[in-house]
Amino acid sequence: MVYFQKRQKLKLHGFSNSDWGGFIDDIKSTSGFYFYLVSGMFSWSSEKQDIVAQSTTEAEFIAVTATINQALWLQKILCDLHIEEK
Question: pTM here?
């Protein structure tokens, strides 16, 4: 169960990470992210990347792109619910 406390300041926090070539069979990387609001984590993902990254930088770029897409979507939902970030 995720428990949210009512507070004056709401701030969406997100983090991302990846590994490079973690799967031995096909040398694909893993991307992951999670988001929390106030004191509860409520959105997360960990999945194998669709392409073979040629460097750690490329693997991180793919992970951060997915994280930004999720952040934009979450901000739109918060806006639709009339919840303002401060």
Answer: 0.80
